[in-house]
Write a structure and sequence with these properties.
The structure holds two protein chains of two kinds. A three-stranded antiparallel beta sheet of chain A has the order 1-3-2. In chain A, helix 2 crosses helix 5. Chain A is of the alpha+beta class. Chain A has helices spanning 4-8, 11-19, 26-36, 45-57, 81-102, and strands spanning 24-25, 61-67, 73-79. Chain B is an all-alpha fold. Chain B has helices spanning 2-12, 19-41, 46-55, 61-67, 70-76, 84-110, 113-125, 131-160, 164-168, 175-216, 220-244, 246-254, 262-266, 268-292, 295-298, 301-319, and strands spanning 80-82, 171-173. In chain B, helix 4 packs antiparallel against helix 5. Chain B starts with a helix and ends with a helix. Classes of the chains: A alpha+beta, B mainly alpha. The interface between A and B is medium-sized, with 21 and 20 residues.
């Protein structure tokens, strides 16, 4: 079982990673998170939407409307330059976080 | 799909209609619909797809700050929220204690039976023993049974005490919990309704011994014994009714229907009147029975009091 406390600090990182190459929309992002994590992490709609809002305010992503197969307008999100910078910082931060926590983990007990 | 829309409407109920809130709702609905459509395409049944979408939706609290509706979300929860677990535990405990409560009521109703039988037998056989001896024996059993019943009630009412707020205060359920309770209630409906109809038919028939015996035998002893028979039938029927209606009763409380409707709960006078009323009736029953020793007649106060109570309730509901 995954702890949502730990993952909360990295939801933005996950979303930014998925937006690095191309813009995407709500459901597609949640689906890719589920697939990439082998269903170990399923993001709630409310969590995802509040992340979008937060990241828009912080200037890490921008939203625009586009249409999809069903023909109805859909909000797409794309990463900004500031978002890319932030993503790189978060990757470094994770490296250090990982190293720190690792010091306290007893491998044989897993 | 309508279920999902209703669910979302419910979650957003009472939130201000700001641009931000409307946009959030629209976006969330799109995400949920996308997920629903894909689940359906992958071969999931409608109900299953809806279940997954709703269970993965999350919690509006998370959105409160980003939408600037923190105040509104917090105010919304001013009304007591009853959780899924609380509701489940309540139903479970109610079902567990019902047979015990029913046994207590059975003991109470049956308590004068032995006394009546002894009085009747004495009349019939014209035994030469002192009447006081019969009365003493019958009374001893009566008091012992009442004492047992009361100790039962005290034990189980203190166990259920922690749920008193469910019966007395107004609360809210979330969508999932309400659906769960409605499901349980529907499943129980058949057994509940048949228990009620059996009991009602039985109650009407239970009057027969009392009515017919004096017509057939012109002996006082038989009339007294017939009351004992009637009381025994009533006791068994009541036991059955109380234990079979536990689930329905619990669901009625949780869904705040009937006696436990929001309207009735806000009517404090009715609550007080109910408590006082039954205490007064009990006092009258005990006082009259012990003073006149007319146990063969005094039980009539219960069916009469029940009907009068229904009338009082109807009047009080109309007034409010």
């Amino acid at each position: 079982m995954i702890s949502s406390d730990v993952i909360r600090g990295y939801i933005d990182t996950m979303i930014l990673y998925l937006l690095l190459n191309e813009p995407s929309y709500g459901y597609e992002i949640s689906k890719r998170i589920r697939e990439l994590t082998d269903e170990k992490y399923i993001i709630k709609e409310t969590t995802l939407y509040s992340a979008f809002k937060r990241m828009e305010i912080n200037g890490h992503i921008e939203s625009f409307s586009g249409s999809e197969t069903y023909g109805k307008p859909r909000t797409y999100y794309k990463i900004t330059e500031a978002g890319k910078m932030y993503y790189k910082e978060k990757c470094k931060e994770w490296e250090i976080t990982k190293e720190v926590i690792e010091k306290f983990i007893i491998r044989e007990w897993m | 799909m309508n279920t999902i829309r209703n669910y979302l409407d419910n979650m957003f109920l009472g939130l201000p209609d700001t641009e931000e809130v409307i946009r959030a709702k629209k976006e969330l609905l799109t995400m949920m619909e996308d997920k629903y459509n894909e689940l359906k395409d992958s071969g999931k049944a409608e109900n299953e797809a809806i279940g997954i979408v709703i269970s993965e939706f999350g919690n509006l609290d998370e959105l409160a700050e980003t939408l600037g509706i923190k105040h509104a979300v917090e105010n919304k929860s001013d009304i007591l929220q009853v959780t899924y677990e609380e509701a489940e535990n309540y139903i479970e405990d109610k079902v567990k204690t019902a047979p015990k409560t029913a046994l207590g009521v059975l003991l109470l109703i049956m308590s004068p039976v032995l006394l009546l039988l002894l009085l009747g037998l004495k009349e019939l056989t014209k035994v030469n023993a002192k009447e006081e001896l019969f009365i003493a024996a019958g009374l001893a059993v009566l008091i012992a049974m009442v004492a047992m019943a009361v100790s039962y009630f005290i034990r189980f009412s203190s166990k259920m005490e922690k749920y008193n707020y469910l019966e007395e205060t107004v609360f809210e359920l979330d969508y999932k919990t309400e659906q769960m309770i409605r499901g349980i209630m529907a499943q129980d409906e058949h057994s509940y309704k048949s228990a009620v109809s059996i009991s009602v038919a039985g109650y009407i028939l239970s009057a027969l011994p009392v009515i017919l015996t004096p017509l057939i035998f012109d002996i006082d002893g038989f009339s007294v014994i017939s009351v004992a028979v009637t009381l025994t039938i009533v006791a068994i029927l009541t036991y059955n009714l109380i234990s079979k209606s536990a689930v329905n009763e619990a669901c009625t409380v949780l869904l705040q229907q009937g006696e436990y409707s929001v309207k009735n709960k806000s009517n404090k006078t009715l609550q007080t009147v109910t408590k006082v009323y039954w205490l007064v009736i009990t006092a009258i029953y005990l006082a009259y029975s012990f003073i006149t020793f007319n146990w063969a007649i005094s039980w009539i106060i219960w069916p009469v009091a029940g009907v009068i109570f229904a009338a009082i309730q109807a009047i009080a509901e109309q007034r409010s």
